[in-house]
């Protein structure tokens, strides 16, 4: 159940009550594609850095180790030793990202595994069955994510199919949750709005899926090649047509500035690989911009990544030491940068929630963006 606590402009401060605990929103979900955050980050670390929700990938876990293995191990929570909420995406994004390895039909999608080439079929029912085996807190509906440059005709046909698939997902989820041997009988289902950068298709699809009474609503198919301005334009158009009393999730977004802008437009769930991916390359976020710790100017810098930061890296280590680890290709350097970046994102979400509660979100956002502009975090 989602409870809207406060609105400041369009920014929402809410709570989503789940079988695995309460999620305070706005929230950033830390991405652990194969049931682990890349960069040698354990679930015990996630507890320490303030992670509320971990996100794993249905397609990747189906391929390896196999959702049947995860089910036999008692579900994803038990398997990876994480007692807080987990969201699993549906495999639908792989319809986009593995374009050269798949064929889309009405019944579903035929893939060739990116690992060993074996044939895989995934449709709405299969996606729900895999996610039920994983026993995540929140399952995503199976959809197609069309390219932002696809033709209008292609996008309309794709969106219509995604709507039909959603009805099948909802029916199959209800069936699975009613079974005696289902691990998580309280699994939630989020729908996904699609439509590339065609506002009218997006709006019509939002209206249609809003009537289907799902547990939450995601906006997919953004941050896949369109400009930030186009993304904000689509959010301005679409979010007002999604239920205010349900969580709104912007998939795969984004930079700290993207998140600040999207919160301002009524979005309250986010995920992105940026903090872990950038961290693995020595790029770390601060309130004064993004630093590249490989730069020679940090060779003798005894300061932490950011003064006052309470992450495990900043509490103990200097920029100079972390730079040395990165240059020496020691895994600890990568790990410390990832921990810092995830802490930075999680802590920023805490600040956002507090600012909305206090009715000063516009002021907070302005100050935060101005701080980023001192460095080189991309603002637009």
TrEMBL record:
Similarity comment: Belongs to the queuine tRNA-ribosyltransferase family.
Task of the protein: Catalyzes the base-exchange of a guanine (G) residue with the queuine precursor 7-aminomethyl-7-deazaguanine (PreQ1) at position 34 (anticodon wobble position) in tRNAs with GU(N) anticodons (tRNA-Asp, -Asn, -His and -Tyr). Catalysis occurs through a double-displacement mechanism. The nucleophile active site attacks the C1' of nucleotide 34 to detach the guanine base from the RNA, forming a covalent enzyme-RNA intermediate. The proton acceptor active site deprotonates the incoming PreQ1, allowing a nucleophilic attack on the C1' of the ribose to form the product.
Species per Swiss-Prot/TrEMBL record: Robinsoniella peoriensis
UniProt keyword annotations, A-Z: Glycosyltransferase, Metal-binding, Queuosine biosynthesis, Transferase, tRNA processing, Zinc
Active-site residues per Swiss-Prot or TrEMBL entry: 89, 271
Entry's Gene Ontology cellular component terms: cytosol
EC number: 2.4.2.29
Gene transcribed to yield this protein: tgt
InterPro entries found in the cross-reference section: ArchSynthase1/Queuine_TRR, TGT, TGT-like_sf, tRNA_ribo_trans-like
Enzyme class (EC, first level): transferase
GO molecular function, one term: metal ion binding
Cofactor binding, per record: Binds 1 zinc ion per subunit.
Catalytic activity: 7-aminomethyl-7-carbaguanine + guanosine(34) in tRNA = 7-aminomethyl-7-carbaguanosine(34) in tRNA + guanine
Taxonomy, superkingdom: Bacteria
Gene3D superfamilies hit by this protein: Queuine tRNA-ribosyltransferase-like (3.20.20.105)
UniProt domain tRNA-guanine(15) transglycosylase-like: residue ranges: 10-371
Region spans: RNA binding: 252-258
Binding of substrate, residues: 89-93, 143, 194, 221
GO BP annotation list: tRNA queuosine(34) biosynthetic process
Cofactor: Zn(2+)
Protein name (Swiss-Prot/TrEMBL): Queuine tRNA-ribosyltransferase
Residues that bind Zn(2+): 309, 311, 314, 340
Pathway of action: tRNA modification; tRNA-queuosine biosynthesis
Assembly: Homodimer. Within each dimer, one monomer is responsible for RNA recognition and catalysis, while the other monomer binds to the replacement base PreQ1.
